[in-house]
Amino acid sequence: MECIYKEAIRVIIRQIGDAVDSIAPKQVEDLVNTIRDAARIYVMGAGRSGLAGKGFAMRLMHLGFTSYVVGETTTPAISDKDLLIVISDSGGRRSSVEMAETAKDGGAKIVSITSNQDSSLGEISDLVVVIPKVEKFRDLAPLGTFFEDTTMIFADGIVAELMAILNEDEEDLKKRHTKLE
Question: Does 122 reside within a domain?
């Protein structure tokens, strides 16, 4: 009998592959262009979505973008030249919607990465990237596991896309990696 953790890993990998295959190429193209056009990029999410967002913000910085994580003490005010990327499975978390509304009122562009395009967050976003909802396999991947893992992998794919467009390689990114660890 196989260990449950191996089955869970295989199911998660398969579901991530299916989800990534269903993301519209136009959403990816629009996301990449919106990132490139922004003066500064702010990323936010709650819980594990926030952890995926922090990883994405870090890689954007490694690519040479000015990026911030919302909620950190050193994050400056957002402006009309900036982009806010909000990661929220439901798209209905009040704190995420309120932050997006505040940024939108200030003229910033809003991108949401969510499984619910028709959510409050989706409605106020300039661009919605839809990560498909997975309702099965809850015994192997509870709560928002599929969304959070897919978002992290998707963000890494966007980083690879940006690396190719910007003609950056790992050595370029290493030059921007922290030396204070």
Answer: yes
Average pLDDT, the chain: 87
**Edge-to-edge, what's the strand order for the sheet holding 109-114?**
67-69, 41-45, 83-87, 109-114, 127-130
Provide the token pair at 14: 């398969």
∠ CA 134-9-43, rounded to 5°: 60
Domain count, the chain: 1
The predicted-structure confidence for 107-159, as pLDDT tens digits, reads as follows: 999 999 998 888 999 999 999 999 887 666 666 655 677 888 889 999 999 99
Give the residue numbers annotated as catalytic, written as ranges: 148
- Enter the DSSP assignment of 180: -
Does residue 138 sit in helix, strand or coil? coil
Residue 181 falls within a domain, yes or no? Answer: no
Length of the chain counted residue by residue: 181
pTM of the model: 0.90
- The pLDDT of residue 28: 92
Produce one character per residue of 109-132: b if its CB has 16 or more CB atoms within 10 Å, e if not.
bbbbbbbbeebbbbebbebbbbbe
Task: Tell me which H or E stretch contains 113.
Answer: strand 109-114
The number of beta carbons lying within 10 Å of the beta carbon of residue 30 is 16
